[in-house]
Amino acid sequence: MKQKKLFVTGISTDVGKTVASAILVEALQADYWKPVQAGDLHYSDTHKVQELISNNQSIFYPNSYALNTPMSPHESARLDGVEIQLDQIKEPTTDNHLIIEGAGGLLVPLNDSDTILDLIQSDYKVVVVSRHYLGSINHTLLTIKLLREKGFEVVLIYSGDEHKSTELIIEKMTGVEVIGRIEDEPYFDKNVIKEYAQKFRSKL
């Protein structure tokens, strides 16, 4: 089995990264790791993904930094009296596929000099989650452009209702491969995640 490592980032916050991560975990029966969690420690993104998957192969690794306040990690860390250091963020060792979930967008600060982008390793494929809102074309194009300038392979997942003109221009200007769309479902549970996993699997 050729190991796949997919880093899930968003064009902004609250665009659907965690649901996308759960679908990818289920599709590949992959392990999951969120290096930095800021806030909601009692019901973190790791807890949410665990709740949404059905397979019993996936292993969930602890956050390298679990911060108490739902803010940018650099400030959340400051409030906790710690400083995030990249050398303390070590990818877990596994032979399985691995889904890594970022926090917010690429340039969210971790400290005074490092951002989420600095967590992305050269062997990761990056899954960008894009959701339509005023300004989302710019945010999507900037995200893809920066990742490609850094040499990463990039694919896209749309989250939410279709917006044809937005998606058409993004795809024309980038030529990015689209894995699929996660609709605005009334709810997400194991069955819904499993259905999306089956749809997306062949594109991964």
TrEMBL record:
It holds the Pfam family AAA_26. GO terms for molecular function: dethiobiotin synthase activity. The active site is at residue 34. The keyword Heme does not apply. Its EC number is 6.3.3.3. It comes from the Bacteria. It catalyses: (7R,8S)-7,8-diammoniononanoate + CO2 + ATP = (4R,5S)-dethiobiotin + ADP + phosphate + 3 H(+). Its cofactor is Mg(2+). It is found in: Cytoplasm. ATP binds at residues 14-19, 45, 101-104, 160-161. Keywords: ATP-binding, Biotin biosynthesis, Cytoplasm, Ligase, Magnesium, Metal-binding, Nucleotide-binding. Its main location: cytoplasm. Mg(2+) binds at residues 18, 45, 101. HAMAP family: BioD (MF_00336). Belongs to the dethiobiotin synthetase family. NCBIfam families: bioD. Catalyzes a mechanistically unusual reaction, the ATP-dependent insertion of CO2 between the N7 and N8 nitrogen atoms of 7,8-diaminopelargonic acid (DAPA, also called 7,8-diammoniononanoate) to form a ureido ring. This is ATP-dependent dethiobiotin synthetase BioD. The lineage of its organism: Bacteria, Pseudomonadati, Bacteroidota, Flavobacteriia, Flavobacteriales.
